[in-house]
Specification:
Length: 348
């Protein structure tokens, strides 16, 4: 069976398994009161299960296990990296699950995430070179570990930061995964494509129950897991195929959550707060304070994510220098618009 056919089969299985698991998790959450209760920082009005990530996590790894069981010759696609990725994902997933029910301090979460990032780096999944346009790859030597950790922590928390309303984080992530699939195909990294396709299938099943009004949330367990997979792919693909496409297109794939994560960290640190501390200064809150409806915010975020997908295609298959220049102007215009927005709105 071809890699493409395997991907379609396991993605469908992941979707169906996610749907089945979510049905059960919603019932269990109501029975045992495993519910996210409304408060002044949250927009939902009914107690809702935060265990959507449990279904995605189980469906994702069950689909990969099925490949190992029924298509053992495809084991070569994953090599030893899959064991490392699996171990890291367990730690990140349970970190999020614990935080959903017994909120941890920002320092504790950063320590755990840094530990996982360091584990990946020692296992060979780290940034060892930076790609500079028109210059090429530059070895970064002793800066490899700190740069890897900064990049890893930024991406791991990126999805969590935008997970503020029904269907937002899941929809943005699904569009980002489409870019990841393009990266993998263009860079000839079929293992990354397979990971992205499986995760997209599981996420599709989740979104059936997360569309407004949501019956289940990602929870920190789901948003941190999604961010972790994005982070792993962003580290993994350049190692397999170190080209300008492999290095920069992952950034475009996670354009919206990355931008929001970077802004949130800068905003909090500048105010003397931990970078992972919760607040209501996120872009989606600002937009709603400015008069946007929830559907309008989702549409804007989806549109920006689609723009990132479009730039991914352009950089991968078009004139890279031209499209990188266009992208730079796009980012500058976006930053200017956000600056005006932030100066004219107040956080409620």
């Amino acid at each position: 069976m071809s890699v493409g056919m395997i991907g379609m089969v396991v993605a469908t299985c992941a979707l169906l398994l996610t749907v089945g698991l979510i049905r059960g998790l919603i019932g269990l959450s109501r029975r045992y009161d495993w519910l996210d209760k409304p408060d002044e920082r949250k927009r939902h009005h009914q107690p809702t299960s935060p265990l959507g990530g449990v279904a995605i996590f189980l469906a994702f790894w069950s689909a990969i296990a099925a490949i190992f069981l029924f298509e053992p010759e495809r084991l070569a696609l994953f090599s030893a990296d899959v064991t490392v990725i699996f171990i890291g994902s367990i730690v990140i997933f349970f970190l999020g699950l614990y935080d959903d029910f017994r909120p941890m301090g920002a320092v504790g979460k950063l320590v755990v995430q840094s530990g996982v990032g360091t584990f990946l780096w020692f296992s060979g999944l780290g940034i060892s070179r930076l790609w500079i346009p028109t210059v090429g790859g530059i070895d970064i030597g002793v800066f490899s570990l700190p740069i890897t950790l900064i990049w890893f922590i930024l991406l791991v928390n990126a999805v969590n930061i935008i997970d503020g309303m029904d269907g937002l984080a899941g929809g943005v992530s699904l569009i980002g995964l489409a870019s990841v699939i393009v990266i993998g195909v263009r860079s000839n990294v079929p293992d990354a494509v397979l990971l992205a396709v499986i995760l997209a299938g599981a996420l599709g099943g989740f979104l059936l129950y997360n569309r407004p009004p949501a019956r289940i949330f990602l929870g920190d367990n789901g948003s941190l897991f999604l961010g972790y997979i994005f982070a792993v792919i962003a580290l993994w693909v350049p190692i397999k195929r170190f080209t300008v496409v492999a290095v920069y297109v992952p950034i475009l794939a996670a354009l919206v959550p990355l931008a929001e994560a970077a802004w949130s960290i800068i905003r909090r640190v500048s105010r003397g707060r931990p970078p992972t501390a919760a607040d209501r200064g996120h872009l989606h809150f600002r937009l709603m304070n400015h008069g946007f409806s929830e559907s309008g915010v989702r549409g804007l975020f989806y549109g920006l994510s689609a723009a990132g997908f479009g730039f991914s295609l352009a950089v991968a298959y078009g004139n890279r220098r031209f499209w990188m220049i266009v992208f730079a102007f796009f980012v500058l215009s976006l930053v200017g618009g956000l600056f005006i927005l932030f100066r004219t709105t107040r956080v409620k």
